[in-house]
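Tip: read the tokens left to right.
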């Protein structure tokens, strides 16, 4: 009986690690192959190999030397960073009101905010386009910041409200007794305790703004204002019949590496932020 149990336990362990290996390979292989392709040149691009046979950085040099890709990269950094700052500022103040201030319709308002995120981008594209033209920010980074902030707010408000709702009421009461204003309570009492949730929502908002394509394609028309997803999609070869796969893969690697690095650095806070509020005790 014991031998059978040990055999079954070993089988489950082997199957578990086999499944983990399959998931890792499926997840990592596309990025690995993109790196492999970005290091090829000439006819090597059309040879299917899974190990590097020759290494060339010509594609990376061409990415940064031709066109406005460096400017597009800076645009993406600016747009994504400002979007995160605005989204977190608005979400922290909104989550304080929704979790700590009692008023009629609070639950309905929170559900309405979450329901906004269920609308696909294409459904609001025309209306948002008219609003952006009315505000006079068309073909500027502020058009993207405006659109991205609207679409990242529901998630950030929901996560931070759930997190803030689970903070002990006694902390807030003690701060009120000491004469703290609501702004002081938010910035000096709650925010130091909310770093896992802030990092999680901020990073996810950054990734969403960094990778977004539809709004960036619609609300910007010049190379000087485009972000990297659109810039990569519009990369062209020497003729209309040539697709520069090597340059496209090199640009994709340049764009993806910062996101991978951010996730690896903040992975512990991401996990704790996503699970915050999930268990009460």
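Filled-in amino acids:
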């Amino acid at each position: 009986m014991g031998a059978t149990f040990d055999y079954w336990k070993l089988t489950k362990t082997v199957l578990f690690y086999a499944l983990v290996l399959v998931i890792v390979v499926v997840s990592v292989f596309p990025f690995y192959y993109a790196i492999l392709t970005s290091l090829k040149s000439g006819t090597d691009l059309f040879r299917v190999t899974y190990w590097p046979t020759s290494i060339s950085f010509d594609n990376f040099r061409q990415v940064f030397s031709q066109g406005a890709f460096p400017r597009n990269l800076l645009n993406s950094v600016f747009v994504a960073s400002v979007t995160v700052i605005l989204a977190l500022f608005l979400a922290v103040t909104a989550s304080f009101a929704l979790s700590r201030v009692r008023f009629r319709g609070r639950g309905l308002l929170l559900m309405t905010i979450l329901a906004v995120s269920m609308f696909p981008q294409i459904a609001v594209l025309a209306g948002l386009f008219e609003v952006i033209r009315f505000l006079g920010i068309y073909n500027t980074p502020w058009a993207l910041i405006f659109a991205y902030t609207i679409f990242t707010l529901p998630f950030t408000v929901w996560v931070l409200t759930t997190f803030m709702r689970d903070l002990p009421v006694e902390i807030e009461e003690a701060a009120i007794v000491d004469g703290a204003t609501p702004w002081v309570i938010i910035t000096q009492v709650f925010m130091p305790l909310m770093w896992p949730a802030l990092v999680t929502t901020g990073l996810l908002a950054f990734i969403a703004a960094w990778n977004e394509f539809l709004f960036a394609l619609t609300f910007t028309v010049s190379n000087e204002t485009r972000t990297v997803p659109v810039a990569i999609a519009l990369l062209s070869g020497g003729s209309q019949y040539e697709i520069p796969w090597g340059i496209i893969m090199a640009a994709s690697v340049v764009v993806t590496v910062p996101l991978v690095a951010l996730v690896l650095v903040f992975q512990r806070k991401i996990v704790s932020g996503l699970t915050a509020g999930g268990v009460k005790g």
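The chain has two domains: 2-56, 67-277. The chain has a mean pLDDT of 83.
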